[in-house]
Design goal:
about 300 residues; about 0% strand; mainly alpha
């Protein structure tokens, strides 16, 4: 395609290269590929490819190593570029909402979620209106576990009906996490199994979350050795990624297992590592929660 000066082909290939890195949870590498895709698609006047690549850049701004402040700037810039490209515009708003929530700006985050959902509903795009993980993140950031559960359960049922597996795995894992937070052990365990069954081996996001949740459940049941092995594996998998919040969350889950194992010093170290990752991302809400856990962990 380079020899033929085929920008359309190059734009599509670079977009696919970005998706490969995304599956590997390597957002920085995906970013570089999607930036190439944006440029080649623009030259080829491929509006769909151009807008898709821009929306993917917004998604990596949310999940990847980019600091929250820079991520907001990026998403606002992309938002202004997209103009009337409704589908991509809605996806960018979705990611921007989650980024805003990380800073604790829940009111703005909720407004952005509503705007995103309204656009997608008007367009009749069922795949992306089935479930919004950003909406769940915003709900959890504000302490609304009931709202997060309702969104996830509705989405899970829709995805089951659609036969969609990749998004289903993440949805089940997140639902298990919410149910665990609510103390609903049996339901949480069941959804860790749903996530385990649906997740492909290279779906690191779902693989990390369901292991972290099940590790907590095992520790609560007194099965400490299994719990430590599973939650440590979740941390190991998360460390392969550049998804700082996911990595930090896995460390918090592991710290909870270590606390239940009465290994307080090790638990404190895991929380400190999580705080450093939240801080690198600029995830103020996550960092504050981790600091509260650490304060409770360390005797006065």
């Amino acid at each position: 395609f380079t020899a033929a000066d085929d920008d359309l082909g190059l734009g599509r290939l670079w977009c696919l290269r970005g998706l490969v890195h995304w599956i590997e949870a390597q957002s920085a590498k995906a970013d570089a590929a999607w930036e190439h895709a944006v440029e080649h698609s623009r030259r080829a006047e491929d509006e769909r490819g151009w807008s898709d690549a821009l929306s993917w850049l917004a998604s990596s701004a949310y999940t990847g190593p980019m600091h929250v402040d820079a991520a907001i700037t990026r998403c606002e810039s992309i938002r202004s570029q997209l103009g009337s490209y409704g589908r991509a515009q809605a996806l960018v708003l979705d990611h921007l909402a989650a980024i805003r929530a990380m800073k604790g700006d829940v009111t703005a985050a909720r407004r952005l979620i509503l705007d995103s959902k309204a656009i997608l509903s008007e367009l009749g795009i069922s795949m992306h209106t089935a479930v919004s993980h950003s909406e769940v993140f915003v709900a959890l950031t504000s302490g609304d576990t009931a709202g997060a559960e309702a969104t996830l359960r509705t989405g899970f049922d829709r995805l089951m009906d659609m036969g969609e597996r990749a998004l289903l795995a993440d949805t089940a894992a997140m639902l298990a996490q919410v149910l665990c937070q609510q103390g609903r052990t049996e339901d949480a365990w069941a959804f860790t199994r749903e996530a385990e069954d649906a997740a492909s081996e290279d779906d690191l996001s779902a693989q990390v979350v369901w292991r972290g949740v099940r590790g907590r459940l095992l520790a609560q049941a007194g099965r400490i050795r299994e719990a430590k092995r599973l939650s440590a594996h979740a941390v190991e998998l998360a460390a392969r990624t550049d998804w700082l919040t996911d990595h930090a969350d896995a460390l918090i889950a592991h710290a909870e297992v270590l606390r239940l194992a009465c290994e307080t010093e090790e638990a404190a170290r895991a929380i400190q590592q999580a705080i450093a990752l939240y801080d690198r991302k600029g995830n103020t809400v996550g960092m504050r929660r981790a600091q509260s856990l650490l304060a409770a962990q360390v005797p006065a």
